[in-house]
Amino acid sequence: MLTSFLTNPGQTATVISPGISTEIFPGREKVKLLVVGSQASVNSIIYSLHNLGFAEVSEWSPIQPAPNPGEVMRILTRHIITN
């Protein structure tokens, strides 16, 4: 199940797969989701989102160090067509 983030409840959008060029879809917008916390907490959120059908675990970036000591982060990038 793919989910889109829309500014207006009545607005429609289409989520397109990673790796598709913006030149093919000029009306698309990149959206990044960031999860920051301890490594265990970040992974727990990502697995929970996976269980809800939001995103595959493999779609998230590798673990990156976060600005605060003891924290890590992972990023999910989605592309939506807004027109």
* Shape verdict: flat
| Unreliable spans | 1-9
Order of helices and strands: EEHEE
**β-strand number:** 4
Rg of Cα set: 14 Å
Span between N and C termini?
Answer: 21 Å
Domain count: the total is 1
Give your account of this protein's structure:
The protein has 83 residues and is of the alpha+beta class. The chain has one domain (14-81). The protein is built from one helix and four strands, in the order E-E-H-E-E. The chain has one helix at residues 39-51; strands spanning 14-16, 28-37, 64-65, 72-81. Strands 1, 2, 3 and 4 form a four-stranded antiparallel beta sheet that branches. A hairpin with a 6-residue loop joins strand 3 and strand 4 (72-81). The two termini are 21 Å apart.
Task: Explain the layout of strands and helices.
Elements: E1 14-16, E2 28-37, H1 39-51, E3 64-65, E4 72-81
Antiparallel strand pairs: 1-4, 2-4, 3-4
List keywords for this structure.
single chain, 4-stranded antiparallel β-sheet, 83 residues, 1 helix, alpha+beta
